[in-house]
């Protein structure tokens, strides 16, 4: 497969400042966490090739700044995003309340088939949780969003967010891997046909045309009494 054949899918991260958007992206992108991560200025970009159902695709990962002064830049990146991930901090109630605002930011700009994902970060601080799992799950269900909680710091559930939640939905919605599945099915059918033909032909028989064992010697009968006298 050439570079031109690889499908590109755009993922954009939205949410308040300090909720951990950059940390989640960095943990997924290169499995690293930086304790003193600097705030994103404007926008940050990464790309990563992944495989979904036997098909290689390229993810274009856009990390947006949460500061008010950079919000004017966001609309231009939302328009053609395939996946929109809205992140909040489970220990910060305001960051969860503001997810409604971030969703509204995309209302008139997003693609019709865009996938929305609500992500609660910092589950490693569960003792100071301010947003219950059920409250966030209910909100996501009401909006028709996917939902998952992670810890970018420990790495818990970050890879699963993509492999178990986002990628299957991408495969379903964007028909990823259908050609590969059809190819595998065809190869399976061809193999079955070869086996079927072999069974129909059957094994070759041994020992001549009429029997299945060794050739039998002809039976020799003893001469009749009269015949025996004539010979004497």
What keyword list fits this structure?
8 helices; 6-stranded mixed beta sheet; elongated; alpha/beta; disordered C terminus; 20% strand; 232 residues; Rossmann fold
Task: Tell me about this structure.
- There is one protein chain.
- The protein is α/β, with parallel strands linked by helices.
- The chain has one domain (3-175): Rossmann fold.
- Helices cover 37% and strands 20% of the residues.
- The protein has eight helices and six strands.
- Strand 2 and strand 3 form a beta hairpin.
- The longest helix has 24 residues, at 178-201.
**Would you identify the regions where 5 or more consecutive residues have pLDDT less than 50?**
209-213, 228-232
Number of strand segments: 6
Q: Which H/E pattern describes the elements?
A: EHEEHEHHEHEHHH
* H/I helix tally: 8
- CATH topology-level name: Rossmann fold
- For the record, the count of structural domains works out to 1
Helix proportion: 25-40%
**Distance N terminus to C terminus?**
94 Å
For the biggest sheet, the summary is: 6 strands, mixed
Strand arrangement across the biggest beta sheet: 2-3-1-4-5-6
User: Overall mean pLDDT score?
Assistant: 83
CATH C-level name:
Alpha Beta
Backbone CA Rg: 34 Å
What is the CATH homologous superfamily assignment? P-loop containing nucleotide triphosphate hydrolases
Strand share of the residues? 15-25%
Report the structural category: alpha/beta
């Amino acid at each position: 497969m050439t570079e031109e054949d690889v499908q590109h899918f755009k993922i954009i991260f939205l949410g308040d400042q300090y909720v951990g958007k950059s940390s989640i992206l960095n943990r997924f992108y290169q499995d690293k966490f930086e304790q003193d991560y600097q705030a994103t200025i404007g926008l940050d970009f990464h790309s990563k090739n992944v495989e979904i159902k036997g098909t290689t695709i390229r993810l274009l990962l856009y990390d947006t700044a949460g500061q008010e002064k950079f919000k004017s830049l966001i609309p231009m990146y939302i328009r053609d995003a395939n996946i929109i991930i809205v992140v909040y901090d489970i220990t910060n109630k305001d960051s969860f309340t503001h997810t409604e605002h971030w969703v509204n930011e995309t209302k008139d700009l997003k693609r019709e088939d865009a996938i929305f994902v609500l992500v609660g970060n910092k589950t490693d601080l569960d003792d100071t949780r301010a947003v219950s799992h059920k409250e966030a799950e209910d909100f996501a269900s009401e909006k028709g969003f996917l939902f998952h909680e992670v810890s970018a710091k420990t790495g818990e559930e970050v890879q699963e967010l993509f492999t178990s939640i986002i990628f299957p939905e991408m495969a379903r919605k964007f028909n990823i891997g259908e050609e590969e599945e059809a190819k595998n099915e065809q190869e399976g059918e061809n193999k079955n046909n070869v086996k079927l033909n072999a069974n129909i032909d059957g094994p070759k028989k041994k020992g001549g045309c009429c029997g299945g064992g060794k050739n039998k010697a002809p039976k020799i009968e003893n001469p009749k009494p009269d015949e025996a006298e004539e010979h004497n």
